[in-house]
Amino acid sequence: MKQPVIIKKFLFVSIMVVLAFSSCAGGGQGRQGGNYITIGVLEPLTGIQAGGGNLELEGIELAHELNPAVKIGGTLYQVRLAVEDAKSEREDAVTAVQMLVDREKASVILGSWDSGLASAASDVIRSSKVPAIGITCTGPRITAQNDYYFRICFNDASQANALAKYANDALGKHKGIIIYEQNNSAFEILRNDIVRRFEEFFVTYRSGRRGYNSIIDEFEIYAGANQDFSGMLTGVRQDPDELPSIRELNPDIIFIAADYQEAVQIIRQARRLGLNTPIIGTANLDTPDFFAAGGESLEGLFFASHYNLDVASTPRAATFIREYKARNDNLNPSAVTALAYDGYLLALDAIERAQSTDSEKIRAAIAATRGNFAGVTGQIILDSNGDAQRSVFIKAVENGNVILKTSVNPISAPR
Fold it and tell me: 342: phi > 0 → left, psi -120 to 50 → alpha, else beta; which?
């Protein structure tokens, strides 16, 4: 099988190969003949965010392998992937996206995993006028006041709405605790959204007999491995002025808005310490690494997700699932990988609708995606903000299996 054209920053590329490509913006004709168009990929492939970044790259590469060319004006253009490593750092994300714009001459960019990295790259995207399609970056600032950054996942306003609604309506939980990662603007904003939505849903209970406070407290955590959360979870105060532990506060439910590395530590320690309060988490937990690390301690966990395999019903879904399983020992693809596959296909679809390698024309075509694109994860409808209007799936771990509990319809949120 002919291998797709993929260029990664950490791979050796000879000077002759580099010179084979012309310097026109995003596409053209190489010295060896043949037309091509460049799609840039911005992902954290090393560092703390590498797990998610590589899951997105996996979906993009599979979609490229199965769809390596696009027809423009009756001429077949080979798609060249240029991949840059954001290294899980904001500064590196800015450098990487600048390389995609200046050196690689990308016509459109895909990525990045982690809202903080995508937000850091946002200014370069806007100033260079090269459109970008975010895959799973849910933070609100990414598309805000940026006509060149789009995303095919739901945003945090929709996610917070779904989590709060499910906790209140389906689980009957009205007294919550929030644990969120501080010094991370994406999780801090998500925390605010969850509090606001939970309080709104709780209004209907205020006149009842329960007399609960809705969000009774919150805990800030730092990013990092091997943290001891036992004091926060079940500790006993030595001083009345100290913050009470979660066990002392006795909430109905615990929300976690943090990276999966921290979330899995909290959940494992809570269960080991005998704290069995229901826990509900965000969509970034829906990764194989999280489930492998959590094991049996994840039993009873609820979390949001972008995609559910059992309801994949688009014409492309069967092909994607079959081809993915054939390359991965019959394993099911993750939600992240499925969305990334769609991100690449949407970029190709926009290029075909634009009938051009010009970034401005491709941007206009992406912005005009109003349900005229059916991907693996369903119909993609972008609103005027560039945000996808899609349902949030709520899943749970039951008897060792991940099952779909419900889906919550999207809500629109102003910039």
Answer: alpha
pLDDT band at residue 81 using 50, 70 and 90 as cut-offs: very high
Indicate whether 413 pLDDT > 80.
no
CB 396 within 8 A of CB 306: no
For residue 392, which phi and psi values (nearest 5 degrees)? -100, 125
The CATH topology of domain 6-154+310-382 is Rossmann fold (3.40.50)
pLDDT tens-digit readout, 17-38: 333 343 345 665 443 346 999 9
Other beta carbons within 10 angstroms of residue 397's beta carbon come to: 18
C-alpha 293/C-alpha 263 separation (Å) is 10
15 confidence band (pLDDT: 50, 70, 90): very low
Phi, psi of 127 (to 5 degrees): -70, -30
Task: Decide: helix, strand or coil at residue 161.
Answer: helix
Helix (H) or strand (E) run with residue 70 in it: strand 69-72
User: CA 95, CA 397: separation in Å to the nearest integer?
Assistant: 39
- pLDDT band at residue 213, thresholds of 50, 70 and 90? low
Q: What is the DSSP letter of 25?
A: S
User: Is residue 363 predicted with pLDDT exceeding 90?
Assistant: yes
Domains of the chain, by residue range, sit at: 6-154+310-382, 157-305+395-408
Domain 157-305+395-408 has CATH 3.40.50.2300: yes
Cis peptide before 112 (omega within 30 of 0): yes
Residue type at 141 in one-letter notation: R
Contact 109, 39 (CB under 8 A): yes
